[in-house]
Design goal:
Layout: E1 2-7, E2 18-19, E3 22-27, E4 30-33, E5 39-48, E6 53-61, E7 67-74, H1 94-98, E8 101-104, E9 107-108, E10 112-119, H2 128-135, H3 145-154, H4 157-166, E11 169-171, E12 178-180, E13 182-194, E14 199-206, E15 209-214, H5 220-225, H6 229-236, H7 240-259, E16 268-276, E17 287-295, E18 302-305, E19 311-312, E20 317-325, E21 331-338
Parallel strand pairs: 2-16, 5-17
Antiparallel strand pairs: 1-15, 3-4, 3-7, 5-6, 6-14, 7-13, 8-9, 8-14, 10-13, 11-12, 15-16, 16-21, 17-20, 18-21, 19-20
Amino acid sequence: MKKFIALLAFGAIAAPTFANDSSAAIGLGGLELTRNDVISMDSEELFLSRQLVTVKYQFTNTSSKDVETLVSFPLPPLPGNIDRYIDAPSFSDWREQLQFKTVVDGKPAELGYLEVVTLTGRPETKGVEARLKAIGWPIKHWEDYEFGEQLSERLSQSEKDAFVAEGLLRKEADSNDYAPNWQIQAHVTRKQVFPAGKTITVEHSYKPIAGGSVGGMLTPEYRKGSDYFAEYQANYCIDAAFLKGFDKRYNAEKKKAAARGEDYGVAYTEHWLDYVLKSGANWKGPIKDFRLVVDKEKSDNLLSFCMTGVKKISPTRFEVRKSNFEPTDNIHILIAEFYDPNAL
């Protein structure tokens, strides 16, 4: 299975993507998301697609005093194994490619940008960047080809074991290779004044980072022999109806390929989009009025994500509406797209 991550700004295919506004603080360990007990999120309108993300909030300062706070929009972290993705070098300038824009009550906001380094799957870890600098390891390891190629060779086994125990390295499954086990998470920040007793409107838009695979875990052959499919299935809430629809399309495409005399199988891609929704729970009370629209772009694409109350509102768009919503999980979206390789 060949993986790739690419910036949609380059017109590439749909992995790490987006987030919800949250109050924040700069601590000794870097940027930290904090709770705010006087600012409520009255509404959130969220639109997710592989080409564009937009989100519109209404916030109200419920106190009798103006509140000025640092607000962070955290993007999902770049994957720890990004060096295996064919477009990894493009992430050196991904900040510019996001084209991130924020408008507050109709006026453009001045934005900041911070990157936080943590161990993969352990966002609470502190001091990782300082530790990497102390031992002379590149933080953006995918830009240093020699580091990745020589990592397993230049360390003794005891050193490897020690770095695995520390969390900086991981041993690759079914091999003797070792790989970096840290990741970078970007935060778009701004200083925001919330006037006493008033409501403000905040709007974000950007071109998401997107990723996926050519082929993937959904094929019947892979599902039967995979030790990882159950986890994959749970991550995207893939149900029996989705698999039935996929298998029907897969078998039909397989027959077409055989009729054309092609022996390389069915051409399809799996696209992944993530959205950091949990940070929306850092404001006072629940999100009073929440609306999500997900666009799968093509009517014959297959879509799956974990959310209740999903309603189809067009051939490609699906809507979720909730009142007094307290998000406890982030959004993980899977889109399966079949294509004719001869038409490319």
